[in-house]
Each structure stands twice: as C-alpha cells, then as structure tokens.
Amino acid sequence: MKFEKLSEYKLKITLSMEELPNNNNDLDSLMSDPASARKSFLNILNKAKDEVGFNIGNNKVRIDAKYQSDGNFIFTVTKLVPKKKTVQKVKPKKVSINREENCLIYKFDNIENFFSLCNFLQKQKINRLNSFCKTTELYKLEDYYYLILDQINNEYKYIGKIYSCMTEFGTFFSTQEVMTFMLKERGRLIIKNNAIQICQKHFK
Questions:
Q1: What is the extent of the structural domain holding 38?
Q2: 8 and 66 in a common domain
Q3: CB-based contacts of 71: which residues, under 8 Å, 6+ apart?
Q4: C-alpha–C-alpha distance, residues 151 and 153, integer Å
Q5: Long-range contact list for 164-167, CB < 8 A, 24+ apart?
Q6: Cβ(110)–Cβ(7) under 8 Å?
Q7: Could you report the per-residue pLDDT of 59-96, keeping only the tens digit for each?
Q8: Bridge pairing between strands 103-108 and 73-79
Q9: Of 125, 173, 183, 191, which sits with the fewest C-beta atoms within 10 Å of its C-beta?
Q10: What is the tally of structural domains in the chain?
Q11: pLDDT-derived band at 35, boundaries 50, 70, 90
C-alpha cells in the first residue's frame, strides 16, 4: 500500500490485488457491499492521515478507481469543498494597483490548487471573467504555477469575491509589470489566455 499526497485536496493510493480490503480480488466484489466498502476506505484514509498527513475531516470525498496493467489498483481521493463554505467569510487581502501597473499575479503551490480555484469560482457563480480582466495567463516556473491577471477592471461586480477566492487557494505574488516579463521570459506558458475559463471547461 502506497500513499502519495498530491495536494491538500487530492490523494493517490496504490494497492496490489492482495491488499484490497476484506480479501476481495476485484473492485466489483469490493463495492458489492457499500457499507463494508465505506468502512474499509475510512480505515485506509486513517492510515493516510497518519502516514502522509492527508486529513479529510468532515468533508465529503470522491473516489476514482483505475486498474493498472501491472495488477495494481490506483485510487484517487478528492476532498470536496463544502457547499456551505462561502467567500463572504474570508476577509479579502487588500492589494493596491497603480493605473500604470494594472495587473495582479498569484502563485499556486501546485496545479490542483489552481483547478480547485477555477471550480470554486464556478460553483460560486462568479462569471463573465472577461469583464474582470482582459487576459488571464498561466505559467509554470520551477515548482510553482503563476496566474497573471492583466488589465483589470476595478469596477467589476465580483472583484472582492475574486480576491477572496484567490487567497483561499493561492498567495498574492506581485502587481509589478516587471514580474510578468520575468515569468514570460523564464517560465513555461501553460495556458495562453482565458486560463480560468478553459480549466472550468476541461478540468472539473
């Protein structure tokens, strides 16, 4: 049994056929008894908490299973954002933006955190992002991902909520245009434009 904590919200579990709970030799047998399967996965997740610090708490989870050609099973556990959680409870971080430097850059520890941001914005029905800023580009530099928001409309209706969401899943990096040049020169372009909308469409 092997645990890999991919992010705060996602865990990868590798099991051999012999390690399937309750001596089952395939997924159909394991899932035939939902109550038993639930108890087995809770025990596995408790082990994951002890070994790699992945704690689901009171959150709901989604489990995706895949059979590998080498005979192992891969389970991907995704911790879901609670529906009761609202961005109004989060105090936005105030960021001053000069007219000459009307851009924002946020840093994400991993791509999963960025995907979680995109999905959360969609669940909060914060739409018409093209009215918020002209371009949204995603870059990778070393082990981090950077979202560049350029030509921001400070009159955008949901601007406060967007700033709150950003600091939930990433960290503020810079408002300086020189940093965008650095990222574009040294980083690797992941999504050229409409980064948030594209991820909302393809990575749910």
A1: 2-79
A2: yes
A3: 16, 17
A4: 7
A5: 164/87, 164/88, 164/90, 164/91, 164/92, 165/87, 165/90, 165/117, 165/120, 165/121, 165/124, 165/126, 166/106, 166/117, 167/90, 167/92, 167/93
A6: yes
A7: 888 888 787 777 788 888 888 765 554 445 555 554 44
A8: unpaired
A9: 125
A10: 2
A11: confident
